[in-house]
Amino acid sequence: MHIDTITSPELEWQQEALCAQTGADFFFPEPGSSVREAKRICGMCPIRSACLEYALDHDERFGVWGGLSEKERLELRRVSR
């Protein structure tokens, strides 16, 4: 049996994301683990800016989004205020 997932138009960009093709392990590592591989993949991703914008707009607190870690996004929010 095949179950189709319903994708919100707001999230259609995720279908083009390289992370969708590699799995979440790199992007949501265990605390203290390296995010180097996730950032490398993000650096090649054609929709990196849309991903980062989504993470900032939705206050994503975990994982690597748009090439930035949780701490980097937090710092970006602080500087942007």
From TrEMBL:
Q: Which domain of life is it from?
A: Bacteria
Q: What is its main location?
A: cytoplasm
User: What post-translational changes are documented for it?
Assistant: Upon Fe-S cluster removal intramolecular disulfide bonds are formed. The Fe-S cluster can be nitrosylated by nitric oxide (NO).
Protein's cellular compartments: Cytoplasm
Q: Tell me the first and last residues of the signal peptide.
A: none
Where does the 4Fe-4S Wbl-type domain lie?
18-75
Entry keyword set: 4Fe-4S, Cytoplasm, Disulfide bond, DNA-binding, Iron, Iron-sulfur, Metal-binding, Transcription, Transcription regulation
> Which positions bind [4Fe-4S] cluster?
C19, C42, C45, C51
Q: Name the cofactor(s).
A: [4Fe-4S] cluster
Q: Give me the comment on cofactor binding.
A: Binds 1 [4Fe-4S] cluster per subunit. Following nitrosylation of the [4Fe-4S] cluster binds 1 [4Fe-8(NO)] cluster per subunit.
Keyword flag Iron: yes
- Please give the family membership noted in the entry: Belongs to the WhiB family.
Q: What does this protein do?
A: Acts as a transcriptional regulator. Probably redox-responsive. The apo- but not holo-form probably binds DNA.
What is the recorded name of this protein?
A: Transcriptional regulator WhiB
Q: Which organism is it from?
A: Streptomyces massasporeus
